[in-house]
Amino acid sequence: MTIFLLWVLALQSLTIIGWGLMQRDQMIQFPFLAASVFVGWMLPQLVGLTNNLFLPSGGLDKTIFMAIICLAAAWFGYTRNSRPAKLFWWRFDVHRLLLGSIVLSLLGAFFFYQVGLLAVGVQAETGGQWTGAITIYVFFAKLLTVGMVIALILHLNKPSWPTLLILLCDLMFYLDRIIIKGRRAAMVELGLMLFMALFFNRRWLPPRWVMVVVLVVGALVINSIGDYRSTMMGEDRTTWSGAGVDKILEIDYVGNLQRLVSGEARSTELMNAVMNIEAADRMGGFDFGVAHWNAFIKAYIPGQWVGYDMKESLLIDIEKSAYIEFSHVAHTGSTSTGLSDAFQSFWYFGAIKFFLIGLIMSRWYRAAVQGNIVAQMILMLSVTASLHAITHSTHGFFMIFVQLITFLLPVLMISRMSKYQHHVLCRKSAMGYDIRPIR
Q: DSSP for 186-228?
């Protein structure tokens, strides 16, 4: 049964990838990106776990089946929607947006830098579980990304030296995090933001063969990210080791993927998912969505400010089923995947979370291609969180809108102009987009 389910998941994912390649504009849409994550990141780990003799009976099959219905739910949620989002069809003063981009980028740069300074110490102290002041800095570091997205849209609308300088400054922080520190999320986020901005504003996307190469190379790099970081980082874990392209090419990318598929390398994230799903199914200990509340409190209520006792009192106790049933403790710094928290909330019906993610992404995308500037920004800022719903948890996607309300909305409200005022940015009326798909 396990092999059959793996083939179903593989064929399902490849079918959706084929759908994305049929029209180039579909290569930046959620179903194609989600299916790529399933193929390049999840499937190798699931195949590797078939050789693990210590998994609870039936747990792997349930996890694969959950993956199948979650991907199907995401697909149906996205493709069955035909309406664009109706919010934020606004016009904006370009100068105010530019000023907002500058302020956000400067503030974000400060916190971005502080995260880099604190990361090594926190890593050494907690083994990868970030807590304390650094979580506050991570939250405010998102300011830089918001400022960069605004500058990117402004620059592609009308290139200027101020927007170019903002982009170059913001890009330095991203490249440091990607090239030197090997952060996968930053790499994916930057790439997708650039592709989406170019498509929404210039109707340009790379050829299909380029995207296929990107997916293959991305799968190899992502599954060798540990070796990449060891190569690029110095002994102090904060600076560049001096390694060049030759050292990067010496990494055994194909071999690392083969070891993952054969089960020689640890599949930590999917192991956590299997244990959580099987334990929740045996015990019936479902949280019915309460975990989202706890995730919100942990992420956005700073214990340093309100007191840790107060913060703890706001959390709702949820049984740790995997620990109770199997004495399983997740490796520090590892994730449990969105499959896990979806199942722990509503059993197999937890796939509704992925249906909602697909629906939300579809509505914003349809508004974005029709010229809704805010929809473009929201989509560019939330697309990475939508993929983290697969690899990490679904909490991040729903909570990303807290950051957007906190950071982006005030700038938009200050910059909003009536249709009778000058110096406005309103892409649909200004450019007269033809919204037919690129083939």
A: HHHHHHHHHHHHHHHHH-----HHHHHHHHHHHHHHHTTHHHH
pTM summary value: 0.89
Average pLDDT over the chain, rounded to an integer: 86
- The answer to whether 103 touches 408, Cβ cutoff 8 Å, is no
Q: pLDDT tens, 104-117?
A: 999 999 988 887 77
Cα–Cα distance measured from residue 75 to residue 80, given in angstroms and rounded to the nearest whole number:
8
> Beta strand pairing status for 91-93 and 424-425?
antiparallel
Spatial separation of the C-alpha atoms in residues 315 and 355, rounded to whole Å: 27
Q: Quick one: which H or E segment has residue 63?
A: helix 59-79
Starting at the edge strand found earlier in the chain, the sheet holding 416-417 runs: 416-417, 91-93, 424-425
Neighbours of 144 (CB within 10 A): 24
Inter-residue contact 418 to 93 (CB < 8 Å): no
- Residue 157: partners with Cβ closer than 8 Å, 6 or more residues away: 94, 201, 425, 427, 430
- Evaluate if residue 393 carries a pLDDT over 50: yes
CA angle 399, 358, 45 (to 5 degrees): 85
- How far is CA 334 from its chain centroid? 15
Place of tokens 């990107």: 214
Quickly count helices (H) and strands (E) in the chain: 23, 3
What's phi and psi for 80, nearest 5 deg? -85, -10
Residue 86, class by beta-carbon neighbours within 10 Å (0-12 exposed, 13-18 middle, 19+ buried)? exposed
Q: Which residues contact 6 (CB under 8 A, 6 or more apart)?
A: 43, 46, 47, 50, 64
Across the range 367-389, mean pLDDT stands at: 94
CB atoms within 10 A of CB 306: 12
